[in-house]
Design brief:
Blueprint lengths: L3 E5 L6 H14 L7 E5 L2 H11 L4 E5 L16 H6 L4 E4 L2 H6 L4 H13 L3 E6 L3 H5 L3 H12 L9 E4 L13 H19 L7 E5 L7 H5 L6 E4 L6 H12 L2
Parallel strand pairs: 1-2, 1-8, 2-3, 3-4, 4-5, 5-6, 6-7, 7-8
Helix pairs in contact: 1-2, 7-8
Bound molecules: phosphoenolpyruvate (PEP).
Phosphoenolpyruvate binds next to β8.
Length: 248
């Protein structure tokens, strides 16, 4: 199972910046990288990024997608429209969307199912707040999120990103021991619930991953990749992180 290293650009980059970034990334990566790479530009840059990435080892991802196929949902973009653009991965349940836009576990579940229906692999984000961790409830919260999002089964390829909310964009990552323990809990839960199919799910760590600390997470036995925000905005930095995942 190749690790998956993902660049979540969030609300960054114009068309010109997107093009410059992707051309540079394609210059510095090998033809057949030891890890799978995926870039998540803003919606405005998805079509351009799709054209540039066609036939390259870098996959196209979308930061969000609406579960309905089409309809009166002003400002939204559907999984159906994303599939039409060649999107291969979609982030579902990112904590910024859960918190800022009030997305519920049920809505996240609908997105995961819709992604599968359109042939897109969901990256399901789960993670506890600092308050929840301090209260000893980290696993309880993550288990609830998993249970809700996957209540109707595992109907396609899946990536789970364990992202403690307090580690996202703060410069303070989780302790690798805690990330490993959570990843192990997630894996055991997947195996109990889905049997053999649970082995095929890749588990990423996300939260203040940088080139300097990437190896601490990407070298952990139960972690098969990273979801990277801030440090993915520069192609060199993103590729240095990805290389840490490719080390044996
Ligand atoms: C993220 O946006 O999912 C993330 C992990 O951000 P950062 O790497 O900046 O903490």
């Amino acid at each position: 199972m190749k690790p998956l290293v993902a660049a979540n650009w969030k609300m960054h980059k114009t068309l010109k910046e997107t093009e410059d970034y992707l051309r540079r990334l394609l210059e510095i990566i090998p033809v057949d990288p030891p890890v799978e790479l995926v870039v998540f530009p803003s919606f405005t840059a998805l079509a351009l990024a799709g054209k540039i990435l066609e036939g390259t080892p870098v996959a196209l991802g979308a930061q969000n997608g609406h579960p309905q196929r089409e309809g009166a949902f002003t400002g939204e973009v559907s999984m159906h429209q994303l599939a039409d653009l060649g999107v291969r991965y979609v982030i579902c349940g990112h904590s910024e969307r859960r918190k800022i836009f009030g997305e519920s576990d049920e809505f996240v579940a609908a997105k995961v199912r819709a992604a599968w229906a359109y042939g897109i692999t969901p990256i399901l984000c789960v993670g506890e707040t600092l308050e929840e961790r301090r209260a000893g409830r980290a696993w309880e919260v993550v288990e609830r999120q998993l249970f809700a999002a996957l209540s109707e089964g595992l109907s396609g390829p899946l990536v789970i990103a364990y992202e403690p909310v307090w580690a996202i964009g703060t410069g303070v990552p989780a302790h690798p021991k805690d990330a490993q323990e959570m990843a192990q809990n997630i894996r055991s839960w997947l195996l109990r619930r889905f049997g053999e199919k649970g082995k095929e799910v890749r588990i990423q760590y996300g939260g203040s991953v940088k080139p300097e600390n990437a190896r601490e997470f990407l070298g952990l036995p139960e972690i098969q990749g990273a979801l990277v925000g801030g440090a993915s905005l520069d192609p060199e930095s993103f590729w240095r992180i990805a290389q840490a995942a490719g080390l044996e």
